[in-house]
């Protein structure tokens, strides 16, 4: 397997792309940790431009009318289940709160994503041996 050269990810909302099956579009769904604690809402999906695959959930939490909102990236590898209303992940709220900062306005570089994946304990999607989780990401 060849390593990716660009590693560029784009927000789904910034492209002309759509989710193949509308009921599989998880934007707007609540995100809950492994204990059922609320983490926020799926604001957007970060898509791998080379492979047309979702790599991260952009999760927004807190704030009022968009002010003071925190945004965090959660790898799709963390998803354990998806229902019509929510997305469950295998991490705790405390662990997600300690994740590396994410600023959606900064350049999106492969090494930035690598530090996030490492923090959550997942291997880089551009590395040899990586297997994309199957939908709906049940383990």
Automatic annotation (TrEMBL):
One of its GO terms (cellular component) is plasma membrane light-harvesting complex. InterPro entries: Bac_photo_RC_H_C (IPR014747), PRC-brl_dom (IPR027275), PRC_barrel-like_sf (IPR011033). Residues 24-95 form the PRC-barrel domain. Pfam families: PRC (PF05239). It comes from the Bacteria. Residues 13-34 have a biased composition (Basic and acidic residues). GO terms for biological process: photosynthesis, light reaction. Residues 1-34 are annotated as: Disordered. This is PRC-barrel domain containing protein. It comes from Microbacterium bovistercoris.
């Amino acid at each position: 397997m060849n390593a990716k050269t660009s590693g560029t990810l784009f927000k789904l909302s910034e492209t002309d792309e759509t989710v193949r099956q509308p009921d599989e579009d998880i934007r707007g769904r609540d995100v809950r940790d492994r204990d059922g604690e609320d983490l926020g809402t799926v604001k957007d999906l970060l898509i791998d431009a080379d492979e047309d695959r979702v790599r991260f959930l952009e999760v927004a939490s807190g704030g009022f009318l968009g002010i003071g909102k925190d945004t965090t990236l959660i790898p799709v590898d963390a998803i354990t289940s998806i229902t019509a209303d929510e997305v469950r992940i295998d991490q705790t709220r405390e662990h997600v709160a300690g994740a590396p900062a994410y600023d959606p306005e900064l350049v999106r570089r492969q090494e930035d994503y690598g530090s996030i994946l490492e923090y959550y304990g997942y291997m880089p999607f551009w590395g040899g041996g990586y297997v994309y989780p199957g939908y709906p990401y049940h383990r």
